[in-house]
Amino acid sequence: MTHLPIIHNLLATNLDMAENNIRIIAPQVFSGVPNLDTLDLSKNKLDDESFRQNPLSNLTFLKKLNIDGNQLTRIPALPPSLEELKMNNNKLSTLSPNCFKGLMNLLNLELEENTLHEGSVSPLAFRPLEGLLDLQLDNNRFRYLPLGLPPSLQELDMNENLIETVTEEALRGCVHLRVLDLSHNLLHEQGIATRAWTRLKSLEALNLSYNRFTSVPMNLPRHLHKLTLQHNNISHIAAFTFRHMRSNLQSLRLSHNDLSNEGMERVSFVGTYRSLGELLLDNNRLGEVPRCVRQFKNLQVLRLDNNQIRLVRQWGVCHPGNSGSTLASIHLENNLLEVERIPPNAFSCLIDAQGLVLYPQQGHSYDQ
């Protein structure tokens, strides 16, 4: 099917024409379905010419439009009623100042897998999107965050780009941003401006996994609940890195890095001891259970598996004065431990013994 057929159904609200070979959309093709609120035209052969005569103009109730997997190089004319637009996997290379004109009701915008970059996105492009909540720009060619992001934005996904730098200006107006995903980029600690996160007072989750960090970045957003830094090259956590965070951080994920005991100072985690519920330190180079672990008051999940741990000290995980423990899960498998030599009080605060995983250990064989 290369032409979209004319359909007459005044009651129809959902039309799915995905995975065809549609190239041509006649101007009045939707005149018989004026009450559509959801339209799926993904995985067709649509290009800019297909929308030249504004075929969507009659769809005054349309809220959701999916045109993923086509061949569009620019944003077509769209009805002002639209709340969700998916244009992933097209050939978008430019966002001009007026490309979203009139789309003041748009809430969710997906532009993944295109060829957008900071030089091709006008700082005025997003201005009409006064209520936009979710913007997905994954898998493009950005080296910097685009300027002019909507102040209303609550979630921004920009993983799998080429981002090296986060400037102070880029996120200045994003006071409502709650979730920011910058994983799978080229970021390192020197590339983040000192005040890059200053105004992000609503930010709760920050994903910086699969980048090039060698230490946990300083000046992190104060109100973070979840920080993900897995799969970097982190070998050091500086003293008082988290001190300013006002006991908000609940989850800290540092798996698959290069951390040793020497890379963590005694005061590295100050600011998290009362709030942290999840600490992931698996797949690093730790030689013993870090001494700071027993200072956490509300820890529920602790992962230390796949390190080089040979030593668990007396009271090494559980502080003798830590009553009312919440610790439910400890992973210590795939280390170099002689399990029978672990002091019996090392895990005394564990709520349930079934939450303790000690086997297998490296270099040991176990009877089946």
UniProtKB/TrEMBL annotation:
Keyword check for Ligase: no
GO MF annotation terms: collagen V binding; heparin binding
Key words of the record: Leucine-rich repeat, Repeat
InterPro entries, per the entry: ECM2, Leu-rich_rpt, Leu-rich_rpt_typical-subtyp, LRR_dom_sf
GO biological process, one term: positive regulation of cell-substrate adhesion
Signal peptide: none
GO cellular component terms attached to this protein's record: extracellular matrix
Annotated protein name in UniProt: Si:dkey-32e6.6
Origin species: Sander lucioperca
